[in-house]
Design brief:
Helix content of chain B: 55-70%
Structural class of chain B: alpha/beta
Number of helices of chain A: 1
Oligomer: heterodimer
Helix content of chain A: over 70%
Order of helices and strands of chain B: HHHHHHHHEEEHEHEEEEEHE
Largest interface: A-B, 38 and 93 residues
Shape of chain A: rod-shaped
Largest sheet of chain B: 8 strands, mixed
Distance between the termini of chain B: 65 Å
Radius of gyration of chain B: 32 Å
Shape of chain B: elongated
């Protein structure tokens, strides 16, 4: 049960981490979008 | 709505800070007002659901604003011929929308943080045994990457916006270089933020194991398992769907970007060269378009060429004090199919002069999200035009034939203007 609980908690941590990284990658695309004007 | 976004973006960073502070104060007031109601034994369970819904809707609105802005900018991408029709107002609106959307993420994240902490205090379980410290730590650390992601996007937006606004004060010839440098710098900020998310994940893993050990063999409630699963699914979905955007980094600087170096886009097909030596200095431009011939933007006849070049030579030290005098030089822009017979009368009057052939090499950029983006770079190759000495110019049929000869020659080719 302890292992199961740890897995559930780690699942939450992994989900939050992936969301945080995705948010930063998504925001960073703005640089690419703006740089298109120099094409 | 677009006027609202425009004014919001124009008033940055004050509008951003004001929006953040206003939203945080409003949410704090709301939480304080609702405190008494929430602290009753019969809790209003709909409230947390309503809050989550509000969070999802506002975040989706901010993301949609950014996405619409990106579509505005990408919609102006076209073929080289279509570059003439680029609507700069649509591009500026697209960029302003992206800034406004990013600006909303900071207030949303902080409102969520303030409201959640205040309400958690009131909704906490009032059991006799205090909850283990590991549980509190885990709660904080799970939220941390989300806050870093949202607030990081907000700070990144502020940084890019500041760089963008500051471009107004930059010399026009330097604008492109400065803009791309600033965008690269903003990218470094994101790398730092990504590192802090990874660090938070490390701390989160330790906290997760510590919490599981502290909780012992007590079964977890279904709600918690569902929350963790939903969070993981959302994270995985968001991560997978943003891989294309993560792969597309800002475009690299082109030394002689065809679109910006001259401030003009040439629709004609100019020669391609295998080597592009750096250009030492600017010079007057003789342009052969389909219908007319222009010298520095003004129509010219063959007989006037010599006088114009002499005037350029005389005025050079006056216009560029302190710079060493340069040999008579002239840039020539022409379509590859231009017959030499059409050019010969103009070049024959030029006298002894260095001719810089203006070429254009394709520099396509393969993007993940928008496919191949066509870019072209000017490329300059010179030959020495002499009144008598050298290979006769009339020996070449078209501008392309001459360009091929110049490109193949290791030394500077000497061409006779006859």
């Amino acid at each position: 049960l302890v292992v199961r609980n740890a897995v559930v908690a780690l699942l939450g941590v992994a989900g939050a981490t992936l969301l945080g990284l995705a948010a930063l990658d998504w925001a960073g695309y703005t640089s690419f979008s703006i740089s298109l004007i120099s094409r | 709505m677009s006027t609202f976004f425009q004014s919001f973006a124009d008033a940055a960073p004050f509008s951003w800070i004001a929006a953040t502070m206003g939203a945080v104060v409003a949410s704090w007031l709301l939480a304080v007002l609702l405190r008494a109601r929430l602290a009753t034994p019969r809790r209003w369970l709909g409230f947390p659901i309503l809050c989550s819904l509000a969070l999802v809707i506002t975040t989706a609105a901010a993301i949609a604003a950014v996405e619409i802005g990106r579509r505005d900018v990408a919609g102006q991408l076209g073929t080289r011929q279509e570059l003439f029709n680029v609507a700069s107002n649509v591009i500026s609106r697209g960029i302003a929308r992206q800034f406004a959307g990013l600006a909303l993420l900071g207030p949303i994240a902080l409102v969520f943080l303030v409201s959640a902490s205040l309400l958690r205090w009131d909704l906490r379980e009032r059991s006799a045994v205090p909850a283990p410290r590991a549980r509190g730590a885990l709660g904080v650390i799970v939220v941390l990457p989300l806050i870093i992601g949202a607030v990081g996007a907000f700070i990144y937006g502020l940084s890019v916006h500041a760089g963008w606004v500051g471009l107004a004060a930059v010399d026009p010839s330097e604008k492109e270089r400065v803009m791309l440098e600033r965008l690269q710098r903003a990218d470094h900020l994101l790398t730092l933020l990504r590192a802090s998310v990874v660090a938070a994940a490390g701390a989160g893993s330790i906290a997760a194991i510590a919490w599981a050990r502290a909780a012992g063999a007590r079964p977890l409630g279904r709600a918690r398992v569902a929350m963790a699963s939903v969070l993981f699914a959302a994270g995985l979905g968001a991560f997978v769907s943003t891989r294309g955007q993560a792969a597309d980094r800002p475009l690299q600087m082109l030394a002689y970007n065809q679109r910006n170096s001259f401030g003009t886009v040439f629709s004609q097909e100019m020669p391609r060269f295998s080597r592009c030596p750096p250009l030492s200095a600017g010079a007057p431009v003789l342009e052969f378009s389909t219908s007319e011939v222009m010298f520095d933007g003004g129509q010219v006849s063959p007989e006037d060429i010599h006088d114009k070049l002499v005037t350029e030579q005389i005025s050079f030290p006056l216009l560029h004090p302190g710079q060493p005098p340069r040999p008579p030089t002239m840039h020539v822009v022409a379509d590859v199919a231009t017959p030499i017979d059409r050019m010969l009368p103009y070049l024959a009057y030029a006298g002894d002069v260095e001719i810089v052939m203006v070429g254009s090499n394709p520099r396509p950029f393969a993007s993940r999200t928008l496919g191949v983006i066509e870019r072209r770079e000017f490329c300059f190759r010179a030959f020495s035009l002499r009144e008598d000495d050298g290979v006769p110019l009339s020996g070449y049929r078209t501008w392309r034939d001459l360009a091929l000869a110049v490109d193949r020659s290791a030394a500077v080719l000497r061409i006779a203007a006859r």
